[in-house]
Specification:
Layout (H helix, E strand, L loop, with lengths): L19 H14 L8 E2 L1 H8 L3 H13 L3 E4 L3 E4 L4 H25 L2 H20 L2 H18 L3 H25 L2 H6 L2 H9 L2 H20 L14
Helix pairs in contact: 1-3, 2-3, 4-6, 4-7, 4-10, 5-6, 5-9, 6-7, 9-10
Length: 236
Amino acid sequence: MVLPRHDKGQTFREIARSDLVGQVAGQLYAAITEGRLKPGARVVEAAIAREMGVSRAPVREAARLLEQRGLLVASPGKGFTVRCPSAGELDDIYGLRINLETYAATLVIERASDAELDQLAGQLERLRATAAEGDVARTVEEDLQFHLMICELSGNRRLLRVFTDLADEIRLIIALIEQIFDDPQRLADAHIPLMEALIARDKARIAREMDWHIGVAWEQLRAHYDDEGRVDEGPN
């Protein structure tokens, strides 16, 4: 998916006529992951179409694509809104992530070659470089790719399938975390202890590091929900 840059004076930029749906989806995706469209925000088709210089049809089709990816929610008579996971959904996803990724990392220690760990280290460097550039949308993708690679290197196909099924929800949550902390470099660097534990092939250490890495993000994000499990004004 193409992730175009935008001018600070507007949320969306006018796009070319080729592959309209893909380009519109790319801009909507970037707006969500960068926090310009916040959780619960309505996707106003007419306004977006006008700003992009297209008809409403490609905007609607793009919104349907992002609905399939779990980033938007369609409501009868209200159109699309940016999905905001409930506190309960957050608990379910993070509880599963800690167990799934800790197990995956343990398998990586047992099975991955040094060359494969070098590839993972290369992905971490791409994540850190992207964060340094300040490209939030790409940073979200590189962050997700790092965790996906851990699952791939585990050699457990069923585990990888479970993670892949969760990928879009995890992508949205990573985007929310980026908006809360507003420091992509610090978040990228938080992956370094994971990499060090994997290189050391230390199972006890990777369990602690994975619990901290995912658990702290869980707690920080959970703090932005009110007592009834709804997001409190959305991350700033």
